[in-house]
């Protein structure tokens, strides 16, 4: 039986948004492949503490804060590796590499170096997932108003939109989705359609967002670029991961007007539910821009919101 090795890996961002990769040295497994900096977790050491130590030893930087992100497992011929990925939120110092052949700052949208270490490859797509998902409610506020608010949000940097209009009739929904996709595409934003993979494909959207009920009966991942699902339990989150979905949305974290009377998870329970998952999870429910730091400290990739995305007051 292959021994499982615990490894801590860090996603280190520069102020311009680029992230750091290192090329493995000639005398190591997968020499020449690129990876995220980090190393083995020593006995009695937490993954977070291991990463802080490793980045000091490998790169000569002092890390003051890390955020839990995702955890992935990979079976190599020499080891079964469990990689605990963290976002390095606060660090200082000048990089002085001691273990890699080379270092490179890469763009999330299109890394130029390669090949990537196999265990790290899926992380690149997760990094492309925007930190904020705007969820539409055009039935409530009117299509014209929703599109007006969409344009303002896109101009302000919104790059992921979910079309969620349960009260909208088929032809109207299709026309709305087509118009929204056109406007989002012009700004480089992605669109997922709630609950309808066929409509997503017809309207040129980038993917589909499944309900928890749809997730429960899903036999295989739809063949779209982005596939996510709404989840409320650990079992649903694990099913989303097992089916190879790209992300999950978990809530409600706080009380929300969309589901009045629904018990809120709170941040502590949210953190428990997402710990150790191999896919990014967006926090949902009564959240605003000011909640982003708290969400990421709890292990969220970012936030999904209805009112928090469009309220301009």
TrEMBL record:
Top enzyme category: hydrolase
Keywords: DNA damage, DNA repair, DNA replication, Hydrolase, Magnesium, Metal-binding, Mutator protein
Substrates-to-products reaction catalysed: 8-oxo-GTP + H2O = 8-oxo-GMP + diphosphate + H(+); 8-oxo-dGTP + H2O = 8-oxo-dGMP + diphosphate + H(+)
Gene Ontology biological process terms in this record: DNA repair; DNA replication; thiamine biosynthetic process
Cofactor dependence: Mg(2+)
Any Pfam family the entry gives: TMP-TENI
Limits of the Nudix hydrolase domain: 3-131
Keyword Plastid appears in the UniProt entry: no
GO molecular function: 8-oxo-7,8-dihydrodeoxyguanosine triphosphate pyrophosphatase activity; 8-oxo-7,8-dihydroguanosine triphosphate pyrophosphatase activity; 8-oxo-dGDP phosphatase activity; 8-oxo-GDP phosphatase activity; metal ion binding
Coiled-coil region list: none
EC number, UniProt record: 3.6.1.55
InterPro entries linked to this entry: Aldolase_TIM (IPR013785), MutT-like (IPR047127), Nudix_hydrolase (IPR020476), NUDIX_hydrolase-like_dom_sf (IPR015797), NUDIX_hydrolase_CS (IPR020084), NUDIX_hydrolase_dom (IPR000086), ThiamineP_synth_sf (IPR036206), ThiamineP_synth_TenI (IPR022998)
Transmembrane segments: none
Family the UniProt entry places it in: Belongs to the Nudix hydrolase family.
Protein name, per record: 8-oxo-dGTP diphosphatase
Species this chain originates from: Aromatoleum tolulyticum
Lineage: Bacteria, Pseudomonadati, Pseudomonadota, Betaproteobacteria, Rhodocyclales
